[in-house]
Design brief:
- This protein is mainly alpha-helical.
- The chain is about 45% helix and about 5% strand.
- A two-stranded parallel sheet has the order 1-2. It has a two-stranded antiparallel ribbon with strand order 3-6. Strands 4-5 form a two-stranded antiparallel ribbon.
- α3 packs parallel to α4 and α7 packs antiparallel against α8.
- The longest helix has 22 residues.
- The two termini are about 40 Å apart.
């Protein structure tokens, strides 16, 4: 389903909720309406289910722990085709199978009878454990209310799920989950450093003191049976690697280059070739582009990387550079982060790399000769130990540049950091296709709102536009994108 189709479906579910509750003259419309979007996404996008075979053995399971919001579940099931929508008006009526709480014996599509608050998560955990025991790959979802999560049984279930390693991230190691949580807090703190520097410092120091990811064994990576990103890179061939990262790594003689990318071929030459962002070479076929420029090196067996020890340590290095308590000085953490990245990718030579004082990012050499350009940066790798304040910005560029390389392929986070700091320095836009963008060095700062938001969410859109402080286009900077040095 498209986003517009999902929004329309969610609105139909909301209408059905109101109709059912009005007909019953009783019920819980608030909790049902607040979960309408969740029900919609689950039943029309996420769950592996079949309305014609509600008890399919390998189906995904859903437990509505807050069973009093049954009108929302019923509306979603009816919209999905488990039973006629006309039956919704019989909600809570004598003789109806649609009573005030879900009944798995009488309602198609209901996986668990619920109503007594605090019990649903325990049931869901049990289902997940049974699936793991039976070597099934179905998924289990539970929706809890904000009130019931204060009950002890909820937390006993959560801890037991961790003990039994029912998640696919840390396999139930709660200590690693806490490190991931604190690492995310550190990332968020750094995002607001140019907005509220004192608050950013407070959050960051508390996060580091509580314990963050410090080694690659604690990297946050989602384990899946099939990494579907491989379809985009290997099967559909939709993507090619950007010119900047290839040029930077070539200039630095970075041994991770062969770990990250495939080689391209142009005429008789084979090498790592990046593609300038935003350009579409004329008189070149798609097949020629695919053959010429480098691709991401990956397989369907790879994990989805969410956060690494290298990124977290670079964040700590920046905090230390700003004078924050990060359990280490800036240079030490910077060099440690490089080492962690090399170890993560199985590359050797981290020490020599981090101490190199002469190598700089390479010039971009377009194999086709059309878009070649000098590097926008001359930043070296080795830390500048000069204690003068004038070196702050120089060492900040080092940290962000090396973090950008180490974070591959986390492109969204890398883009956020580029907007926040101005680093790494990118090549200017060659062919400006962005609406409202006039500064070709700054480039795009945000994505515009989808057109369907204006159609289906007009009232809230007006409020969002007022807070945007600019036009709804790619040139308007977000509230945290306010670094005075980025112009």
């Amino acid at each position: 389903m498209t986003n517009l189709e999902l929004q329309k479906t969610a609105n139909e579910i909301r209408k059905s909720i109101v109709t059912a509750v009005h007909s019953a003259k009783a019920g819980h419309p608030g909790g049902s309406l607040s979960a309408a979007d969740i029900f919609t996404y689950l039943y029309f996008e996420e769950l592996n289910i079949d309305p014609k075979n509600p008890k399919m053995a390998d189906r995904d399971r859903f437990v509505l722990s807050k069973g009093h919001t049954a009108p929302g579940l019923y509306a979603a099931l009816a919209e999905r085709g488990f039973f006629p929508k006309e039956d919704l008006v019989t909600l809570r009526h004598t003789g109806s199978y649609l009573q005030g709480h879900p009944d798995m014996k009488h309602i198609p599509g209901v996986d668990m009878s619920s109503g007594s608050l605090g019990q649903g998560l325990s049931v869901a955990v049990g289902m997940a454990a049974a699936g793991k025991f039976d070597k099934k790959d179905y998924r289990v979802y539970a929706l809890c209310g904000d009130g019931e999560i204060q009950e002890g049984q909820i937390w006993e279930a959560a801890m037991w799920a961790g003990f039994k390693k029912l998640d696919n991230l840390y396999y139930g190691d709660v200590r690693k989950w806490y490190k991931y949580l604190h690492s995310l807090q550190l990332r968020i703190a750094m995002r607001i450093v140019y907005v509220k520097p004192e608050l950013a410092r407070e959050i960051a120091e508390k996060a580091v003191a509580a314990g963050v990811i410090e080694n690659n064994e604690d990297n946050a990576q989602l384990h899946v049976e099939e990494n579907r990103s491989a379809l985009c890179f290997n099967d559909w061939k939709d993507y090619r690697i950007a010119a900047e990262i290839v040029s930077y790594m070539q200039g630095y003689n970075d041994p991770r280059l062969e770990k990250y990318f495939t080689q391209g071929k142009y005429q008789d030459d084979t090498d790592y070739y990046g593609l300038r962002i935003g350009i579409l070479p004329s008189k070149v076929t798609d097949d020629e582009l695919i053959q010429t420029y480098s691709n991401r090196l990956m397989t369907a067996n790879d994990t989805y990387m969410w956060m690494t020890a290298a990124e977290v340590t670079f964040l700590r290095a920046e905090g230390a550079l700003r004078g924050w308590a990060m359990s280490g000085d800036a240079q030490q953490l910077y060099e440690k982060a490089i080492t962690l990245s090399f170890e993560q990718w199985g590359a050797s030579g981290a020490s020599g790399y981090s101490q190199n004082k002469t190598l700089v990012p390479g010039a971009y050499k377009d194999p086709r000769g059309t878009y070649s350009a000098q590097s926008p940066s001359s930043i070296t790798i080795a830390w500048n130990e000069d204690k003068e304040n004038t070196r702050f910005e120089e060492n900040l560029e080092r940290i962000i540049t090396q973090k950008w390389i180490a974070m591959f392929p986390l492109g969204i986070e890398a883009w956020c950091e580029h907007r926040r700091t101005g680093y790494p320095k990118f090549l200017p836009i060659m062919d400006n296709k962005g609406v409202g963008i006039t500064n070709l060095t700054l480039g795009i700062r945000r994505l515009s709102y989808p057109a369907e938001e204006y159609q289906l969410n007009a009232e809230n859109m007006l409020g969002a536009l007022r807070k945007l402080n600019g036009e709804d286009n790619g040139a308007t900077r977000l509230w945290w994108d306010c670094n005075p040095n980025v112009k």
